[in-house]
Design goal:
This protein is 48% helix and 22% strand. The radius of gyration is 18 Å and the shape is globular. Helix 6 (143-158) crosses helix 8 (178-190) and helix 6 (143-158) crosses helix 9. The chain has two domains: 6-113, Jelly Rolls; 139-220, Winged helix-like DNA-binding domain superfamily/Winged helix DNA-binding domain (Arc Repressor Mutant, subunit A, Orthogonal Bundle), CATH 1.10.10.10. With 235 residues, the chain is α+β, with helices and mostly antiparallel strands.
Length: 235
């Protein structure tokens, strides 16, 4: 079985053999809720073409995205290993394919295989670092720079210059009003960096968008690159 997901590609031959029987390929529609905060993780998702979003819920309604997971990692992995309730909502930000593995199977394998445990912890650490970066970014950087970063990170994951999300959804993810996102997107459009196609945002000038993004983009990109380096299976 060929894996597009870097974490699954990094499995040793023994770990891949032990887990393969429990793997199930699923197609996640955009917006599908995978796990709600406070729930026990029943399955860990390794995206192939989907992009999953981890969202903190503030009060009863406000949401802020703390991390995204694409083909470089897995969603729900740390909570599954610790057998603890998850602290965020996880849903399909961009629909697509993923591999799901039951949490109890991964947990059992992690305690049987130091190689797999090390791989899982490295991935979880990278995801935690992304959450920390996201918190700092929200506190320090303006909406336009954060929007540019978000578009670039999503482009890296889906490999398409068209980001299939509306401004209303972007506003929810970034924890701001839709009018605020509209103003920031309008500034990027006026600068010739993005355009609109059927309500979706198209990246027109990637190099220019990188110059508009805050330095958090490079930090995120470096983390993704490190995870991509895991994709050579351990011996």
């Amino acid at each position: 079985m060929f894996f597009r997901n870097h974490l699954l590609r990094a499995l040793s031959a023994d770990d891949a053999s032990a887990l393969r029987w429990s793997m199930r390929e699923v197609v996640l529609p955009t917006g599908q809720m995978i796990c709600r905060r406070g729930d026990m993780v029943e399955a860990v998702y390794f995206p192939s073409t989907a992009v999953l979003s981890m969202v903190a819920v503030i009060g009863d309604e406000r949401t802020v995205e703390t991390a995204t997971v694409g083909f470089e990692g897995a969603a729900g992995l740390l909570a599954a290993l610790g057998e603890e309730p998850i602290s965020s909502d996880i849903f399909a930000q961009i629909g697509g394919a993923a591999i799901s593995v039951p949490a109890n199977v991964l947990r059992r394998r992690a305690f049987e295989s130091p190689t797999f445990m090390q791989l899982a912890l490295r991935s979880a650490q990278a995801n935690y670092a992304q959450c920390e970066q996201s918190v700092a970014c929200m506190a320090v950087h303006g909406v336009r720079a954060r929007l540019a970063r978000w578009l670039l990170v999503t482009d890296d994951r889906i490999g398409s210059d068209i980001v299939p999300l509306t401004q209303a959804h972007l506003a929810l993810m970034m924890g701001v009003q839709r009018t605020t996102i509209s103003a920031a997107a309008g500034e990027l459009k006026a600068a010739g960096l993005v355009g609109y196609i059927r309500g979706q945002i198209q990246i027109v000038d990637r190099a220019g968008l990188e110059r508009q993004a805050c330095e958090c983009y490079q930090a995120n990109h470096a983390a993704l690159t490190r995870l991509a380096g895991l994709s050579q299976p351990a011996q």
